[in-house]
Design brief:
Number of strands: 18
Helix content: 40-55%
CATH class of the largest domain: Alpha Beta
Structural class: alpha/beta
Shape: globular
Radius of gyration: 25 Å
Bound molecules: nicotinamide-adenine-dinucleotide
Largest sheet: 7 strands, mixed
CATH architecture of the largest domain: 3-Layer(aba) Sandwich
Number of helices: 16
Distance between the termini: 67 Å
CATH superfamily of the largest domain: Aldehyde Dehydrogenase, Chain A, domain 1
Strand order of the largest sheet: 10-13-14-9-8-15-16
């Protein structure tokens, strides 16, 4: 069996041979990736169900269709993204060709997380292939069924010389990081991101970090409370809160909270029935470790559980849960929840809400629910976050025209659509000159006489 460094060496030789440079090669690989997803959709859905009990609908819209849509978009557009971009010229460069050329970086490493184990591997890979790179994929070992399927399918469909899957957990990933890559694209927790950065520093490898954090949902002013409850419950409990862009906590006035709670109760019953554990639309917590982490958080909170709270360790089931009377120093407010627990904090004013948001790390997404445009605008103008969406959650990330990524502690860099292509490209500044105007050039050569300065 090949060692990790042999895999990387093999891909590097392929890259240096120039095989990935022609547009046609990239197009063929993207098309094969499309076939891979379509031919094996049933197996993919079954692996996602095994890993997280993902409901079929959620698995299709948030994994399979996300990859297919991204492929369609890249296949339709990447030829134009590859074209040189001519820039404005100065008088002294009028006769030159001045353009930006997008070049592949080389052999890149994509490390994925377990919560959307298909999408988080293949969406970045589409950008990397379109940009002409060779790619090592390192899916999450936590979502083991999907990891295994990815390792089986990729070599069957894509060029083995240019793309490889390396399996394993923390130790294997650390060993893999000792190899030299031209870019590392990491999706996962902030804690592990530090390990990735340390490894990347040794080779001065550029890194994209797709991390998480606490995404607020600020409900303020006049608001359609029934619609707000539907959209909030959907965004929070999709994949049972195991989404990097899930609303992590709600901020609202005490009066809004009182109006919201019965609507949340009603919506949760409408969506998942009276016994959510029996509902096929409720995913499970990915592992016992994460189940225990979430149950410990619930045990530590000083807030009051007003909806849900039921759990079953054997089944890794936690019911959609709402907690009120939560203060900023509560256990639920110290780290990203990443599970089906929704704390509600109250604030007295728009300014207090904005101050609370700004007091914390910049989130990956920020949601504002309000009928009042001035409220939405005020929050947008006075905060910072990776993405922003008013009156809904998660959906902003489905549009390939919008960059997807964090800011500060929620991540560095972005992808989706052209943004992914750019992340995996070097923007090479090119000036092609001839030998004309040599007499004019005399103006910049020594001796630097006074009269040359007056030019
Ligand atoms: P994870 O446990 O699957 O880890 C992510 C990857 O890091 C895996 O491939 C794993 O093998 C590797 N890894 C784990 N420990 C390592 C170590 N010590 N050294 C090197 N590699 C290691 O996933 P996770 O970290 O639990 O992911 C959840 C986090 O990811 C959440 O914070 C979530 O918000 C974030 N996330 C972000 C995005 C995004 O697009 N911004 C998407 C999904 C998840």
């Amino acid at each position: 069996m090949e060692t990790q460094s042999q895999v990387v060496d093999r891909l590097r030789s392929a890259f240096l041979s120039g095989v990935t440079m022609p547009e046609q090669f990239r197009r063929t690989q993207l098309t094969k990736l499309m076939s891979m997803i379509k031919d094996n959709e049933e197996q993919i859905l079954s692996a996602l169900h095994k890993d997280l009990a993902k409901p079929k609908f959620e698995a299709i819209v948030s994994e399979v269709d996300m990859v297919i849509n991204e492929l369609h978009y890249a296949i339709a557009n990447f030829k134009s993204w590859m074209q040189p971009e001519y820039v404005n010229k100065s008088l002294a460069t009028k006769l030159d060709d001045c353009f930006v050329r997008r070049e592949p970086l080389g052999v890149v490493l994509i490390i994925g997380a377990w919560n959307y184990p298909l999408q988080l591997i293949f969406l970045p890979m589409i950008g990397a292939i379109a940009a002409g790179n060779c790619v090592v994929l390192k899916p999450s070992e936590v979502s083991a069924a999907t990891e295994s399927l990815i390792a089986e399918l990729v070599p069957k469909y894509l060029s083995k010389d240019c793309y490889a899957v390396v399996r394993g957990g923390a130790e294997e990933t650390k060993a893999l990081l000792r190899n030299h890559f031209d870019h590392i694209f990491y999706t996962g927790s902030q804690a592990v991101a530090r390990t990735i950065l340390q490894a990347a520093a040794l080779n001065l490898t550029p890194v994209t970090l797709e991390l998480g954090g606490k995404c607020p949902c600020f409900i303020y002013g006049r608001v359609n409370i029934a619609a707000a409850a539907h959209r909030l419950v959907w965004a929070k409990f999709f994949n049972m809160g195991q989404s990097c862009v899930a609303p992590d906590y709600v901020l609202c006035s005490p009066a809004t909270r009182e109006a919201l709670l019965p609507e949340l109760r009603k919506t949760l019953e409408e969506f998942y029935g009276k016994e959510p554990q029996k509902c096929p639309d409720v995913s499970r917590i990915v592992s016992l470790r994460h189940y225990t982490r979430l149950m410990e958080l619930l045990g530590k909170t000083k807030g009051r559980v007003v909806i849900g709270g039921e759990s079953n360790q054997e089944d890794k089931f936690i019911a959609p849960t709402v907690v009120v009377d939560v203060l900023e120093d509560d256990a639920l407010m110290q780290e990203e929840i990443f599970g089906p627990i929704l704390p509600i904090l109250t604030v007295e004013s728009l300014e207090d809400g904005i101050a609370l948001i700004n007091h914390k790390e910049k989130p990956l997404a920020l949601y504002v629910f309000s009928d009042e445009t001035s409220v939405v605008d005020t929050v947008l103008e006075n905060t910072s976050s990776g993405g922003f969406c008013s009156n809904d959650g998660i959906v902003h990330m489905t549009l390939p025209g919008l960059p997807f990524g964090g800011v500060g502690a929620s991540g560095w860099g972005n992808y989706h659509g052209r943004w992914g292509f750019e992340t995996f490209s070097h923007q090479r500044a090119c000036m092609l000159r001839g030998w004309a105007l040599e007499r004019l050039n005399g103006l910049r050569y020594p001796p630097y006489t006074e009269d040359k300065l007056s030019w």
